[in-house]
Design a protein that fits this description.
The protein is mostly helical and 227 residues long. The chain has one domain. Helix content is 70%, strand content 4%. It is built from eight helices and two strands, in the order βααααααααβ. Strands 1-2 form a two-stranded parallel sheet. Helix 1 packs across helix 4, helix 3 packs antiparallel against helix 4 and helix 7 packs antiparallel against helix 8. The longest helix is centred in the middle third of the chain and has 24 residues. It is globular, with a radius of gyration of 17 Å. It starts with a strand and ends in a 10-residue tail after the last strand.
């Protein structure tokens, strides 16, 4: 079967949009945020108590900025592409706030409906990450740290992703306890833990599915600026 061309630049754009809606639907469900965005969400919950303008989207690119610095420390190098990754975080944060506003009127009154939104959120999240893994444009810091560590130390990217996901769960729990009191879970619930177990597998499945039907190629000759 002949593969169709899928441009990596389009993969980046779609990944951003889908990722934003995935977080919005997960927040709508109320079963706990995905472990990747849980720390930023908890940061938003706390800071917004004092600064109402500190939205979920703003918290995302503030937290991701810190994560980019951590990435540079771990891999012991700094690239210009890391700055582009922060630009991606700002774009994502802006889209996230827009996505949350768009889906706000959608009903979430019953357990079944909330379960549907949670499932949609998880599937969109893992699909968007697989798209980010097929683009040269600097991804969000969440994907950047996984790609950089796996590349720097020659590790399997899906295994690194799984380890990072569980580390995010632990960080989210620690932040929730620190901000709201020991034993208080905000943004962390059963859905967060379930997501940690299935994310790596789903991302791998989506990536293989994409590669089965599409041949990823660059449309523009600008990859060197992101290296």
């Amino acid at each position: 079967m002949k593969k169709r061309t899928f441009y990596t630049e389009l993969s980046y754009v779609l990944g951003l949009i889908i990722m934003a809606f995935s977080a919005a639907f997960t927040e709508k469900a109320g079963f706990g945020m995905s472990m990747v965005v849980a720390p930023a969400y908890i940061l938003h919950l706390k800071v917004s108590e004092f600064l109402p303008w500190f939205t979920f989207g703003v918290a995302e690119y503030v937290f991701q900025g810190l994560l980019i610095v951590l990435t540079a420390v771990i891999v012991r190098r700094f690239r210009i592409s890391y700055l582009f990754s922060f630009v991606t975080a700002v774009l994502y944060g802006t889209l996230l706030d827009c996505a949350m506003a768009l889906i706000a009127p959608i009903p979430d009154s019953t357990f079944v409906i909330r379960l549907v939104w949670y499932t949609v959120g998880i599937l969109l999240c893992t699909f968007s990450v697989s798209l980010f893994f097929h683009t040269y444009i600097s991804p969000e810091a969440y994907e950047l740290i996984v790609k950089e560590i796996s590349s720097r130390f020659n590790l399997n990217i899906n295994k690194v992703k799984t380890v990072y996901d569980f580390s995010s769960v632990i960080l989210g729990i620690a932040m929730s306890f620190a901000f709201f009191g020991f034993g208080v879970f905000r943004g962390i619930a059963a859905g967060t833990v379930f997501c940690a177990f299935v994310n790596g597998f789903l991302i791998s499945r989506f990536s293989k599915l994409l590669e089965k039907f599409f041949d990823f190629k660059n449309k523009f000759s600008i990859q060197k600026y992101f290296e």
